[in-house]
Every structure is written in structure tokens, then in C-alpha cells.
What we know:
The complex is a heterodimer.
Chain A: E1 4-7, E2 10-13, E3 19-25, E4 33-38, E5 45-49, E6 53-54, E7 62-67, E8 70-75, E9 85-90, E10 97-98, E11 102-106
Parallel strand pairs in A: 2-11
Antiparallel strand pairs in A: 1-3, 3-8, 4-5, 4-9, 5-6, 7-8, 9-10, 9-11
Chain B: E1 3-7, E2 11-12, E3 18-25, E4 32-39, E5 45-51, E6 58-60, E7 68-73, E8 78-83, E9 92-102, E10 108-111, E11 115-119
Amino acid sequence: EIVMTQSPATLSVSPGERATLSCRASQSVSSNLAWYQQKPGQAPRLLIYGASTRATGIPARFSGSGSGTEFTLTISSLQSEDFAVYYCQQYNNWPQTFGQGTKLEIK
Amino acid sequence: EVQLVESGGVVVQPGGSLRLSCAASGFTFDDYTMHWVRQAPGKGLEWVSLISWDGGATYYADSMKGRFTISRDNSKNSLYLQMNSLRTEDTAFYYCAKDERRYSYGALDYWGQGTLVTVSS
């Protein structure tokens, strides 16, 4: 099973600033990597798939990069609605696996 | 508009069985792989299982193999998860999710609101 490790566990950033979230895979997942956002009491929402393609309706301030084992989600200018938990997921191998999440909180 | 509506979550005793359902609408159901993902209260996401668009292929997380069975009825636009030999650690919200790729396997682009399964004596 591929282990996905996200860092940091919690990230404190001020509105308007840039946030950078990391995800590392225990072996290569090529570009088969997705990012999800989850707010309290809600289902997850797909942000990025294929490591760098924004899902439908996702603002341009969200961007993804990386391939192989190292991936990054960048939020260029944080809005109040962006404070949430973010998960990465690999779908290159069975079983598909999620990272443990990064909580993005207001500084 | 894509909609996924889960049902069937209840309180069940350890060792018991339960069948979850997911009613899908707003897309061509039999073109897409479907998934179940779960989340224990206050914890992270855990992928459970998937079934291919035609039901011909199924995959499971290791901890669910032999206990859970995923199935689908394309004539009813419905997805199911049969859960047997339930354990307290199976307590979670169970989400139904749609794959973003047609006739393949990819990320999960639409999710239901989840149904809560509680395993407790």
C-alpha cells in the first residue's frame, strides 16, 4: 500500500497570504494525484486532479504541481472561505490512499 | 446537476450486517466508476472500495476485503455497499463518490453528503 504523508499537519496563515501544502508518496504515483478540500460538516470537494489540473469551478488561486513522489498545493492569496482541511489522494495503485490531511487555519 | 444521495446508515451491533445505498442522478451512471470512501468522526478520509462502470471490476482496501462487497445496478442508477462482520472501528460517515474519468479510474469529482454507520453494542 502506498503511504501518503502530508505536511505540515496544521498551517497558520493570514488572509491574503500564500499557503503551500505538501504531499509525499512512499513510491511513485506518476501524476495520478488529487487534492480535496473539506470544511466542517461537509463532504470533500475535488480541487485538483492529475497533480495540476483544476477541477470544474475551482478558482485560479488554487494550483497543484509535482509528479512522482513529491507534490504541492499552493493557494496564492488566501480567502476566508479557504480555511479548511486539505487532503491529497493517490489513484495510481490499488488500494487508493489518502494523506492524513493538513488543517489550514487563520493566523 | 450531479446528485449522489446515500442512505442506510444506522446503529448496528458488532458482528452485524448492513447495506448502504447511493442513488445517483444528473449524469450517465453506467459510464463511470463509482467509489465508497469513509471518515470516522473527527478523523481523515479512508478509501473503501470502487466498482467499474460495468460492474466487471471491483477493488477494496485491505481492511475491508472479505467483509465488504460493492455492487451496482445500472438500470436503477444505484450503488451499494454490503457490510458484514462489522467492527466498532467501522464506525464512520460513508460517502458515495463518482469518478471523474469515463470508462477508467481517476479522482473523485462528486461526493454525496454521507450516511453515518455506528457500530456499537
